[in-house]
Amino acid sequence: MSTGLQLFGTTLGVLGWLGIIISCTLPLWRVTAFIGTNIVTAQIMWEGLWMSCVVQSTGQMQCKVYDSMLALPQDLQASRAILIIASLVGLIAIFASFAGGKCTNCLPDGFAKTRVTVAGGALFVTAGVLGLVPSSWTAHQVIGDFYNPLVAHAQKRELGAAIFICWGASVLMLVGGGLLSPSVFGTSPCSRNGSMGTSAHLCGISHGQKNAEGYITFCNRKDIFPFQS
Questions:
Q1: What burial class does residue 140 get, using C-beta atoms within 10 Å of its C-beta: 0-12 exposed, 13-18 middle, 19+ buried?
Q2: In 122, 145, 196, 222, which residue has its Cα 20 to 30 A from 8's Cα atom?
């Protein structure tokens, strides 16, 4: 993998992680639904994972932190926990991707750096999946209540901006992790520069040489690779 592609994948992962943090803190997961021809309302409700806000028609806004976590809906309770885990996993992924970067000297061994980079990519993908779960779950609950005739109009909510930010951040982390993961291919554990061809020469085996079974063995290990003729 080239240095530019590695940096691009890491950058996407970092941006996605920042998006997860922003969506977790914003009180915009559920907002007041404007139903009917009259959109004039005395106040607008914003509901987040940690607090709820009321915006008056005069422009004044008042926010209040939730008194009890157990009083929250199940989707918001789960979203809190999952997004905290996603943030921690994303932070570990950032450290791993920087430590395994080709432009850093945290690890002297080339193959070790590659393995750490791939681990960082896998963690970015994991954090992205974790970010999709609470945002999609909350969106499902909001849409279900919106079209439920048993729910009063005053209780209906629409999707807030934080849900869309969380979706976008999760996609960035998935793409960034996917760009970092392919760096494992073409790497031999016998080589310090990540090149199978180089490791083959170091072991005294030339390219294209195969045994009677049609396999090439590197460094006299039991690991064998099918020979592509």
A1: exposed
A2: 196
